[in-house]
Amino acid sequence: MECILVVPHKTDISIIEREYPDLCNDEMHEEGDRYFIGKPSDEEPDEADEESGEWLTYDEAVEFCGFSEGAIPDADAVIDGNGEWAMGMLTRTDFSGLATDDATKLEYKRRSDIWHEAFERGKLSR
User: Fold this and answer.
1) What is the DSSP letter of 99?
2) Where are the chain's structural domains?
């Protein structure tokens, strides 16, 4: 998986870089400074990627997004391929009203818990 992090121009992201040293700076964009971590989902990981930590699992990507947004309040972290709805599901805490089966609700809750725990860890690192 690949994640994209956008922060306001000239934001100090050293907190995130200490936790995620593989973070790569892209170039400045109108919306802010943009960074990447991981590999695009259309690429297959090879052994070198897996050993170096450059390839993220979906759960690791969820954790990165939560941590980054907790550490820097104005940060916007997105998992490549996830739209607004999917990213919103990560920050949600109550899934009881969804029209889906209990197993799906449990999986949504499990991933939401990863995001929220990482978000709190990010807040504490400020």
Assistant:
1) S
2) 2-124
Q: Could you tell me which of 12, 11, 6 has the C-alpha nearest to residue 29?
A: 6
Count of H-run helices and E-run strands, the chain: 5, 4
Rounded to two decimals, the pTM is 0.89
Question: Among 113, 122, 124, which Cα is nearest to 17's?
Answer: 122
Range name among 23-27, 44-48, 63-67, 99-103 with the lowest pLDDT average: 44-48
The Cβ of residue 101 has, within 10 Å, a number of other Cβ atoms equal to 9
Spatial distance between the Cα atoms of 93 and 119, rounded to a whole number of angstroms: 13
Q: Are 18 and 44 in contact (CB under 8 A)?
A: no
3-state secondary structure of 6: strand
Report the amino acid identity of residue 112.
Answer: S
